[in-house]
Each structure stands twice: as C-alpha cells, then as structure tokens.
Structures
1.
Amino acid sequence: MKNHIETLTKLLASIGKPKPVSVAPLPLSGSDRIYFRFVFKEGERLIGSYNPEIKENIAHDTFTAHFINLGLPVPAILARNPSLEYFILEDAGNITLLDLLLQEGLTDKVKGYYFRVVSDLVRFQAEAIRGLDLSVAFPAGSFDKRSIMWDLNYFKYYFVKTNDITFDENLLEDDFVLMASRLLQTDSDFFMYRDFQARNIMVNRETLSYIDFQGGRKGPLQYDVISLLYQAKANLPETFREELLNTYLEKLESILPGQRDKFMSTYPMFIFFRLMQVLGAYGFRGLFQHKAHFLQSIPYAIENLKRVLQKYPMPGFPELNRIFEQIGKLKDYHFVSLPHDKLTVSLSSFSYKKSGIPLDITENGGGHVFDCRALPNPGRIAELKEFTGLQPPVIEYLKDKQEMTDFLDHVFAIVDQSVDNYLERGFNSLMVSFGCTGGKHRSVFSAENLKRYLQEKYGNRLEVRLTHVELQKEGRLL
C-alpha cells in the first residue's frame, strides 16, 4: 500500500501537483483495482489508481479519451506512468446514484437522475461506437457466442453448483446453446458498456459522471438497459422500470428510428441472461470471496428472477426452468435489515462437514466462531442421535456435562467483552457462530444458551437473531 501511494505521489508531482495533505484508500469493489483519494491544501481532490492488468488499463485509457472527445461525462485521466499500472484521474465524488436511491428513496430528484441516465446511455451506445478502437477492448472485443457461454458457465459453476441445485448437465448445455443462439439474433453493432448500473454512476453537485466502462465492447442494446433497470439492490418498482424503458426507447427512436421493435423482440431473453450473469458474479464475489455487498444483493436478485418468470415465462428451456424453480426456493438467503439504533447479535449453529462456517453478510467480515467438536457428542449415542439440541433428551444430556458448562462459561466471558465494547462504541452488528460435526446437537444447544444469556443480561439494549443452519436446511424447525 505504501509503495502505491509513493508512486502515485510522484506521478502527481510530474503534473505539477503539490504534496497532498491527506491520502485515503477507497473501498474495494468487485475487482482487484485499488483506488486512493488525494486531497490538497486548497481543497482540490484527485483519484489515484493502481491495476496490474495492463490490457484492461489500456482499454480504460483509450475509451476515456474517446468518450471525452465526444463530450460524454467520464472522469478524465490526468497522468499515467510509463508501465500503465498507475493513473491519476479526476475525482467524480463519492456519492453514487445507488447511494442516493438507498438514502433518499425514489424521490422526484432521484427519478430525475434516472431519466437523465437512460438518455445518456443511448449516447454511449449509439454515438460512442463510432470510431472507437475496439482492438484494445478487454477481455473481448465483441458480444459473441464465446462471451455468452463464459457468463452462462459463470452462473452454473459459481451459483448453481455452489448452492447444490440439481440439474442434468447435458440438458442444461442444450438450453445454454439455445439461449446463445437466441441472443445472437439481435443487432450487436452498438457500444455495450457491460456494467451499466447505478453503482457506477457518480452524482456530484447535480453532475452525473460514468465510471467502470473498461470492460466495454461491441454488442447489443438490451444488456445495458437491463443492467440498470434490474440492478438487484436498487430494487426499482416495476412501474418505474416501465417508465424508464419507455423513456429510453423514445430517445433511441429519435436517434435510430426503427429500433424499438427489434429491441423488444429479444428483451425478455436478455433479462434472464443478465440475471444469470449477476447471480454468477454474486456467487463468486460473495460466496467465494466473502464480499459483503455481493452477499447482500443475492436475495434481491432472486426476487428479481421470480418476478421476471411471472411476467415473461420461458417455454422451451426445461432444464433452466427447473433450476430457476429451485433458486426461487432457496432458504439460505433472506433480506437482512439491521436496526441502526441498537446492536444486533447474529447467532448461528452450523456443521463443519456439511455447510462450513456461515458467511457474514454485513460489512464486518465475520465474528466469533466456537468449535464444539471437543465436547461430549450426543450424536454418538443411539437413543439421542435422532434428537436435536432443541429437544429435552439432548438438552438434559448436555446440561449434565461439566465440559459443556465450562465451555459456555468461557464463551459468555469472551462474547461479553465484545458486546460491552460494541455497545459503548455504537456498533450495530456482531456475529457469533457455533460449529460441530453434524450441526444438530452441541452447536444448537450452545447457540440457544448464548441467546438466552444475552437476552437476560442485556435485555432490549440489543437484538439477538438466531439461525440453525442445518436444522433449517432439513426443515426441522417447522
């Protein structure tokens, strides 16, 4: 980190900028790029970036120059080092359109921004493609069968298989091939931004600025519109989606007459394709890389998929429909809303062998994990095996074990320290997990006892939420 800042500071000096008064790393997103905000004495702010992927940087550099030449609102690149790993850019601010939407709701002001955005999108798609050097596009220069299959397999391997959804590999491949052929029937002679969503649209003093377009390529119109309208966490109402779509199509017709019917003919298919790509990305970034905001978006994406299936049925894709039906029934994902005025302690019991340590879908990255496998195991006793830690036979057995009493005393002391500190500092989230071999006896008993202890000691100063992962999967909480 220090080396990056030193290199970027030298790059600033090369364009006559003084030493900054402060440097702050910006939050990481879905990529490996690193950003810093430099603040100068007179209040000026600039962004420094580091990315080891040179080909991606060349695409960003080339596209930026082209867009600015056309008058499209993107942050200018002010300096770059010879190796093209480090860049200095204009600062477009730190508030995204998604931030505004989540903070203020769908106010008239926020709606106004969205209407401006769909108008700007038509310009990116229809105007920016002219004269654009697509030879530098990364990782692909056009929307073709190969790039479609990449995204479909992304969905299969990082979301479908990760969630243990059952399907026939050969039949699914048939559906993928059919979907690809349908998608490729549309016109693909436009600029495809690739990740056109409210998180990549900056709002700074009424000015809109567009970022994260370096993955752009030649492609169809539908994908980017859908990326904006069906962004999971934005959760736009269906009526507003229709308004935005109509505004977009009116603008499109004014520039490219005759496109509306062509656009709508494959629009539903592109919605499914984009939602599948998104779920694949959330699976990879959230379930594998444990990035919180991707995990938080999964339930919204699932709800999107369920609503779209009701509006646009998908005949002719039997295996995909079977998968979609199972996704709609997933119980591992639920909407999480933590109260801001109190501490929420999220407790869980789990199986090390079956499900692994639960993920933290807040921004905290995890919490206490207690291993119960060294404790006496009711699962090894024939007459207790079929009971759970919620039932009297197992409860009575574990209550009489000194090892369990000592274990819980230590747990209470450790968790007390965190709770007291978090309450004092005004934090709103703490995660505590208990794991055992099967996730049904010792871990369940321990989590239940900690819940009872916290409620008795702290009362309404905190909220306790408890999930028994394995019991929930097996339907034994009903």
2.
Amino acid sequence: MTQPKNFGFGEEEQMVRDSARKFLKDNLPIERLRTLVAKDHVEAYESEVQPANYDEELWKQIIELGWTALGVPEADGGMGMKMIALTSLAEEAGRAGLPSPLISTLMATCVLRETDNASGALGKIAEGRPASLAITTAEGSWDSADTDVVAETSGTGAVLNGRASFVQDARKAELLIVSARSDAGIGLYAVAADAPGLKILPDRIVDLTRDQATVEFANVEVKQSDVVASLGTGDKAVESALPALLTIVSADICGAAEWQLQTTAEYAKVRKQFDRPIGFFQAVKHPIVDMMVDIDRARSIVYTAACAIDTEPETALKYARMAKAAASDVAAFCSGRSVQLHGGIGFTWECDLHIYFKRQKHNQMYLGDGAFQRARLAELYD
C-alpha cells in the first residue's frame, strides 16, 4: 500500500499541531520552564529526593484541550485520532521541553489500544488521568516477553509481586500499565498508582523535565476489570505498540532538536567576535546547517513511521526503528553543537541549553539509541 500524500497530515492534524504550538508558546515560555525545573541546582541534584516538578494548572488546561483523549478510540470516550496527530503533538511537547506526564500517557494509550479489555483504562485516560508504562526490567529490557513482575491468579483477578524499573513520570502518573508474567504467559494490568502494596522509589536522573522511578509491587490486588490484556496476550500487545512508542519518543527528540537549532542560530546572530556576529564565520555556519539537515532527515523518517502505523502497519516497525536511530543521533549531535557554539556560557547552569541537553540525552537512550536500533534493523533482514 502506498502512503498518502503529506503522510496523511490533514486539516485536523494541522489544527492539533498549530494549537499545541501556540498554547505552549503562550503558557510555557523558556523563562517559565526554567522556573519550574531549573531554578535551583541544589534542589535539582543534591536534595534527598529529586523533585518531580511540573505545573499542575497547566496540566489541567492540557486535559481541557483534550490532549490525553487524542489517541483514545471514540468508543472509549476519546477522539480516536490517527498516529500522525499524536506524533505532531509529541513533537510540540519536545519543542517546549514540556515537563508533564503527557508523553508517558500517550505511550500508555498506544499500548492499551492493542489490548482486548482496555475500555475502562482508556476511558480514565480520556478523562485526564495521567498514565505510564511499567514494563521494563531492572536490566533495562522492555522486551514484550520479559518482566520482573509476577502475577498470581486470585479469584477473578490477580495479585502482583515484583518490580518494574525505569518507569517514566511515575510520580505524576495516576494509572500504571503493568506487565506481569505467570505460567500462562504475559498479561497487562491497569493499577492505580496509590494502590495498597505499591511503592514508588524515585530514581535520580539527569533530565529535569521528567521523573523516573522503580515501582515495587507487594501483594497488589488487581480486579478482573483491570486486567487489560489477558495472560498470554500482553506481550503481543506491547510488541504491536512498539512502533508507536518509538515514534513518539523520536518526535519528542525532533521537537527539542528544533528548539536547539533555532536558539543556536539566534545566538549566532547576536554574539560578536572580531567585530562580527559569530554566524558570519564558516566554522559556525556549517555546523548549524548540519543540525538543520539532520533534523529534517530525522523528522521525515518519524512522520513516515507514523504514517505507516496508520496506513501500512506491516512496515511500521522497520520505519519506527529507522526513526529512533536517526532521532537518537540527532539528539546527540544537536546537543553537542548547541553547547559548543554557545561557547563558555553554553556550559553554565544559567544558560537554558542544559535543560534541553539533558532531555535529549535521556530520550537518546530511552528504548534504545541509534546503534541499538540499527542492530535490530539488521535482524529484520537476516
């Protein structure tokens, strides 16, 4: 099947992108972002528990705008929009450095859409309850058949024991989508973040725009209605959603990289050396152009992957891995060049570059960096 023109990006998707861009520009300027997450170095990195700062009022506005309902099917109370719309929203979140549970909620939505009993959980997300995936092992594996949580059947429900690692925005989420194993296979469970027996152990990470944690389960009871993927089908749901997860993270990277590019280009126009703006010199011009070219290439692959999810799912994983590989490389390159071209000020806490640098470094490795994705791509052709 041939992909539609312009990746299937129509009027509705353009409206989502443009309204998100304007809303975040108006409500989350860089001064506000700095105040939220980087106002104090000691608080950010030396406090006993690293803060998970975000603007709860801004999050309420995001809910009112319907962003959490964007990918939820209409039958479950959402808007049922295409992957291309979720991708454009994720890109704008990255451009703004948005500290919120939006990205983790979009990713949880994508997994739930692949399950057989997720109407209740999807309905909660559509109403605005933030969610996150608890599917990663202590070794960092998010393989659909691998989990450190064990499920034991209890009546019509289950009891969960074990731990999930590297859970994104765990302290902001109200709903966790947990992968757990039993003799019958992998199942997925929707668990309230404040459920008895559930404990959130915050990680200390470099990225100030999100939080991460290990989540422990000690005899956490789950009702039958919260078993979103029955035993033996949970791994298939995660596997089917993987292209969407990779695409969302890649879009976030592209948005943040665009901010790095534009900020660096503006700085090159006003910073002077030898009585000329530094942008006059080829040693500055050329890296900025290289940033632009690499971002455009990665963005093109990201939207190809999103369109494939919507129109030709048989090719989606290939394109999604290509997108994450290109985007991860862009995260590293643009972060390095933006700091380098800002000179001495670029390395300081007072320069806003570090907020995006750290978000990019986190995203670069999350779900596998460029080298990892290229190795997985090679396996597709063995």
3.
Amino acid sequence: MIIIKPKLNIILLISVISIGTCLFAFPEIALKGAKSGVNICLNTLIPSIFPFMALATFIMRTDAMRFPCKLFGKVTKHIFLLPENAGQIIFMSLIGGYPVGAKLTADALKDNEITDNEARRLCIFCMNAGPAFTVTALGVNIYGSVKAGIVIYISLCISSVILGILTRFLSDGKNTVQIKKSVKSFSSDDITFSVWDGFEATLRICAWVILFSAFMSVATVKLGKSGEILSAVTEVTAGSVTVSKICPIPVVTALCGFGGFCVHCQVLRFLKQCSLQYKLFFAGRMLNSAISAAICYIILYYFPIEQNVSYTFSSARVSAISVSFPTVIAFIFMCVTMVLNIEKKDKVC
C-alpha cells in the first residue's frame, strides 16, 4: 500500500492550484496547447499506435505468440533471474509500448503468477517505447527516415535488456511456482474485443497527451527556453517534436528512455498494484535514459544516417560527438549506485 506523506500532499496541493491558476489566467494559450495535443493525437499517435494496440491485444488474448514467448521465457530465466512466464511480459513490453509491460505485470501479480519482488523488478525495466511510436511516429513522421526510428528503437531495447540484467541484484532469491495455462482458443469475438480495447487504450494515452499539452503550453510561452525543457521531459510525444529540431538523435532517444511524466502518470496505478515506490521507478527511468542515449550515440557514430529535418545529419553528428562520453558513463554509474542504494535502504513492503 502506498501512503502519501503530509509534505507530499502539500506539494501536490500547491501544484494543482498553480496549474489551475495558469489555465484560468491564460485560457487562450491553454486552448491553443490543447488543440496542439489533439493535432498530435490525430496525426501521429492514433494512426501509428492504434493499429498496433489492437494487434497486441489480439496476440495476448488468443496466445498467437505463445511459442516465441515460451522460447523467450527460457532466456529470461537465466539472464534476468525471472520465471519463464515473465518472458511474455518482457517480450510484449518491447513491442507493445509504454503501458503494456506495466499492465501485464500487474495482471500477472494479481493472478499469482509472479512474486511481489519479481513484479517490482519487471516494472523497473518493462517500460519501453514500442516500434509503433519510435519507427512510425518518430522515424517516419518527425525525421522522415525509417532508419532513424529503427536506431532509436534498437537503442531502447538494448537499454531495457541491460537494465533488466541489473535488476538481478535486486532479486530476493525466491522462485515462483510455475502455473501451467491451457491454450486459449480463437473466437470471432476476439477480433471485436481487440479493436475496441486497443482503441480505448489509445484514447487513454491521447487524453493524457491533450491534458499535458494544455498546461505545458502555458509554461512554454511564459518561461521561454526553460518552459521548452520542462515540456520536453513532461510529455514525450510533443517533447520529441521540440527536441528533434534542436538536438541530435541520442538526446531524443534519452527522452524516450525516460518516458516523460505524462507516461509515468499512465502507469502509476500499476506501480501501486505492484507495490513499487515511485522513486525507485524514477531512478530506473533515469538510468534507462542514460544507457539508451549512450547506445544510440555508439550506433550513430559507426553507422551514420541521413535525416530529412531542419538540420543535416552531419551537423547533428558533430553535436553528438561533442558530448563527453566519459560523462555519460559516469552518469550511468551514479544511476546504478542510486538504484541499488534505494533498494537496500528502503525496502518496499
């Protein structure tokens, strides 16, 4: 059970009052931001995410990917020190997008298929931007390059795997009793359910995007550059559009690795069900952001690609090379230390 401390209540109250005041004080700016959020949803999110959401729901409902997920489960047992039935969760989180991994983890814990410790570890690294967003939304719609989206996606996948391996150090050594499930039969209702469930999940994502776009537009206008930075780390979709115009691809990859507070809000209820403290989840996101950026930097250094954006890739590559790589490694080391210290000093009940 997650208990909100009195100090946090005060912070939340001040934040809500401040946001409400901004929305009422600058209604035109907020309205423009909300319209921008709707535009992002209609032109980017829904076309790229909804078809994949429906397909992912169909796959999980009918066990269409049962065999490859079973093979992947053999790997998870030795690499992540997790039970074989966690393989499907990890596999679907890599291809399904941000909310899928957290939702599947919470469902598995509810059905007693995994332990509390395993659920918390899965929530730390099963948070990945899927190919629908990275390849289609970022690569095609923003960069005009499928290869750019693939590089971002590969970087995020490798980072998630590395983070999952690091969670081995958080294992309590207890094994889950494996539950043998019967193979699900196919029904025509599965198609209808998958379409509507995928559409509902897409609408929930769009709702958060529109809400954050509304009040973050006020911050962007009134705070200038500081507002743009705040907006970028708050909502990953609009933030990626802003950051892609002024920063190289590794920075956008880092932003996707973090996920943005809008995505964090989408999975809070699943974190609560898994008894994972937000500070540990946040530390995992920071570590994932640093690792994914470093991997993307390495890939682009050896395999540069061209982009159809406002700046040429040659200039972007110079910007990427100018980043201190030892500094990135040092930041990753500090994040790892922070994650381990949080787990040791403050066990989740």
4.
Amino acid sequence: MAVIDMLSRLNMDTSVLRARMATLTQQTTTGLKTQALGELGAALPQALDMKAEIHRQQTYTTAISAAAGRATGTQAALTQLEMVASNFANNIAIKLDPNDPQSITSAATQAKAALLQVANLLNSQQGGQYLFGGTDLANPPIPNAATIGTSGFVTQIGAALGTLGGGNAAAVLTSSVTAAGSNAAGVTPFSAFLSDPASGLNEARRAVPTADGLTLPYGISANRNANATSTGTTTGSWARDLLGGLAMLANMTPAAAAAAPADFTQLVQGVTGWLKGSATAIGDEAGALGQTQAQLDQLQTTQANTVTALTTQLSGVQEVDMAATITKLQGAQTVLQASYSAISQLGSLSLVQFL
C-alpha cells in the first residue's frame, strides 16, 4: 500500500509539474506571463490603464501625423504662391512702361497664366483632401479654376481698367480691390461654402487634437488669412490680393497705356504695391505655419517617447523575465524527468520485493 500511495503522490506531483511546464513553455514562446488579461490578478487594473493610455496617445499621434503631412503640403503651396507674387511685384509689374507696349503685352500674357497657376495651387490636395478648403475637404475652394481668367472679379477689374484716364488711377485701383474682395456669387472665384458667412467664411480654422481638450490650428482657407495680417492696399486676404493684382495685369493693354500714360504709370505703381503686400503676407503666413509645423514635430516626439515609456512599463507588468523563465523551465524539466524515473522504478517492483 505504501508503494501505491507513493505512486499516487508521484503521479499527482507529475501532473502539477506538467502543468507548470506547459505554463513555462508558453511564457518562453510568447514572452507574456499570461495571454489572458484576467489572469494578471492584482496587476490587471494597472495593465488596463496603461493599455488605454497607450491607445489614446497613439490616436493623438496618428491625428498629429496626418496634420503634419497636410501642413507640409500647405507649406509647399505657400512657397510657390510667394514666388509668383514676388516675381510679378519685383520683376514684371514694376518694369511696365507705357512707352514699351511689348512689356505690357508680355506681362498680360504671363499674368493670365499665373492666374491659372495660383488657382490650381489654392486647389492643392493632400491625401484626397483640399488643403485650402476649410472644413469642406471634398470640394475645391476654387470650383472653376480652369476658367478663372473669365470669372466675375476678373471681368469687373477689366471694366474698371477700361475707364482709366483723367486722373482716376486711384479710383480704378480701389474698384479693383473691391472686386477682388467680393464674396458675391458670380463675382468671387471661391466656392459657395467659403464665401458664405454662415459656413466657411467665418468658421474656425481646421485644427488637430493634441491632448484632451487641446487643439492646434493649422488650416488655411483660400479666401482669408490665417495668421498673417495684410497691410497697405489690400482686401484683407493675401490670396485675393494676389489674384486681384494678377487680374489687373492680365487686363492691361498697350492701347490703354498710350491713352493715359500718366494714369497708367500711377496705376502700375499701385498694382506693384498691391502684389508686394501679397508677397509679404504670404511669407508671414508661411512663417507662422512653419512654427506650427515645429510644434507638431515636437508633439510627435513627445508622444512617441510617452508611448515608449508606457510600453516599457506595461512590459514589466505583462511580460516575463525570459532568462529567469528559461532557467525555471530547465529546472522543471529536470524535476519532471526525475519524477518519471521514480515512477518507472516503483512500477517495476515485484510483489516479492514488497514483502
């Protein structure tokens, strides 16, 4: 009976060892203490809190990364827009001379092409979303970019230029600024959404959530400034100023210059200043966006570090010490083999040996 009791105890011990071996084998395979969170015991609340925080931080990181990509696309467009404004202000408009008809014709041709270029830049997209469309992400801020040269504000500016003469250069410039700044349907080139005071015209800038209750604005609408302040001759919007100045150049003709050379010269000075103001404001806008990009980069770094730290802490709760676990597994294997050997030896004893 003693041998039978001993065999029974050895079998029970062996069953416990096999279960222990199975657990240790699984831990060395997965690196986890357990694959069921519920088996973490007292460490479960801590593990759940850390998992939730990691997920929250990763969600913010994803949103910030997407915003950073859109900001980069916006910055690229602003760079080209500033180049257009600066080129026309400093190299083209400033050189117009009523006694040089060819320069006027050339400037008009270039301005017509630039109007289309600017419209397309303001319709820039990133990931299928329009960058300058405010919260109307699916529709272009300038719906008819291909025909912007015949849009209402360009036509009105052309009509104002048709009245040039008799000392009215300042009035023509004022009329042109008014046309460029209009939100009226059929005049403005911008979408109905962006032109509506109840929607895009006054909506808050597009922003990205960076933490609970905190957002960082980064969006720029095509028809109004974000951070920049336009000064001098202006509609209050660097984009409208650029389009308006180009529209004036596109409508200029050698005949108009010859008919009123003094007024033409004065008007050219006004247009040059208008375009210079636009270039300056675009540069200011790009600078402000650059600061926002730096903030986004810093936030990404901070959140990545936070996730790394939390993941390390979670590992301490969920994961095993692999070296120690392997040692335990090897020890359990040794003990189990000894147990099997003992059972084998006891099983081979004869009845005579018991007596």
